[in-house]
Amino acid sequence: MFIVDEKDLQYRFGDSGPKYLMRGPRMNYAMVQFPPNTDFKAHYHNIMEENFYVIEGTIEVTVDGVTHTLTPGQFIHVEPKEVHYLRNTSNTVCKLVSTLAPFVEVDKVEVENP
Predict the structure, then answer these.
(1) CATH code where residue 41 lies
(2) What is the pLDDT of residues 26-48, one digit of tens each?
(3) Which of 8, 16, 53, 64 could be bridged to 97 by S-S, CB 3.0 to 4.6 A?
(4) Could you tell me the CA-to-CA distances from 71 to 11, 20, 21, 54, 77 in Å, in that order?
(5) In which element (H, E) is residue 41 found?
(6) Into how many domains does the chain fold?
(7) Over the stretch 69-78, which tens digit does the pLDDT of each residue have?
(8) What is the DSSP string of 44-112?
(9) Nearest-angstrom CA–CA distance, 19 and 26
């Protein structure tokens, strides 16, 4: 058992990207923040499935070429090998919860953005 306080952690890119509350041993759990007009490189995972739950703002999630616009309270599940690309085209911050499982230390394959 352990307790983590999000305010003690940093986003990967300063004010954006993932902020991992847990990495392994069986899953990753992160808060993800997208300032206005930012994105996260298109990629897929060979083994891990990834989930996103929108807490605040609006996010465009493109999965295998199909774009979905998600708003607070919406959830999307991405299967292994499905290429996904996230982009905030709004003028407000977007915050998400992200989970990845099962945990694999290196499982992200970057591809060209759609």
Answers:
(1) 2.60.120.10
(2) 999 999 999 999 999 999 999 99
(3) 53
(4) 21, 22, 23, 6, 15
(5) strand 38-45
(6) 1
(7) 999 999 999 9
(8) EESS-EEEEEEEES-EEEEETTEEEEE-TT-EEEE-TT--EEEEE-SSS-EEEEEEEES--SS-EEE--
(9) 17
